[in-house]
């Protein structure tokens, strides 16, 4: 099991929703465009391929691997807006 941060900046609302839906299926939303994902190397490669079919210029996506030491040292403060029942809508998007 590997740990990843998936960070994206998508310029189109339709593509943004598609990428967010994929990320949400595999990880936990930390910020509007940041997800923590714990999965196998094969799964992250599949996620990369799926998102790669969606994004266009000038979109950007970063997959940042976290070693077990760094992952275990994550400190969290405050309550996220992105609980499992939170549904992003137009007024919450930063484009």
| SSE order | EHEEHEH
| Biggest β-sheet description | 4 strands, antiparallel
- CATH top level label: Alpha Beta
Tally of individual helices: 3
Q: Evaluate the radius of gyration.
A: 13 Å
Shape: globular
Portion of residues in helices?
Answer: 25-40%
Neighbour order of strands in the largest sheet: 2-3-1-4
| CATH architecture classification | 2-Layer Sandwich
Task: Indicate the structural class.
Answer: alpha+beta
Q: How many strands in all?
A: 4
Intertermini distance = 33 Å
Low-confidence stretches: 90-95
Notes on the structure:
The chain is globular and about 35 Å long. It has a four-stranded antiparallel beta sheet. The C terminus is likely disordered. The longest helix is centred in the N-terminal third of the chain and has 14 residues. It contains three helices and four strands, in the order E-H-E-E-H-E-H. Strand 2 and strand 3 form a beta hairpin. It is an alpha+beta fold and 95 residues long. It has a single domain, classed as Alpha-Beta Plaits (2-Layer Sandwich), CATH 3.30.70. Helices cover 33% and strands 27% of the residues.
Q: Which descriptors would you attach to this protein?
A:
4-stranded antiparallel sheet, alpha+beta, 3 helices, Alpha-Beta Plaits, 95 residues
In short:
The chain is α+β, with helices and mostly antiparallel strands. It contains three helices and four strands. The protein is globular.
What is the strand and helix layout of this fold?
Elements: E1 2-9, H1 13-26, E2 27-31, E3 34-39, H2 41-52, E4 60-66, H3 68-72
């Amino acid at each position: 099991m590997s740990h990843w941060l998936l960070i994206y900046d998508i310029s189109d609302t339709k593509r943004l929703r598609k990428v967010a839906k994929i990320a949400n299926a595999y990880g936990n939303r930390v910020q509007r465009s940041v997800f923590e994902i714990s999965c196998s190397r094969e799964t992250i490669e599949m996620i990369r391929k799926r998102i790669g079919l969606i994004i266009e210029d000038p979109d950007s996506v970063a997959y940042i691997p976290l070693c077990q030491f760094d992952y275990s040292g994550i400190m969290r403060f405050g309550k996220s807006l992105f609980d499992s029942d939170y549904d992003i809508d137009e007024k919450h998007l930063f484009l």
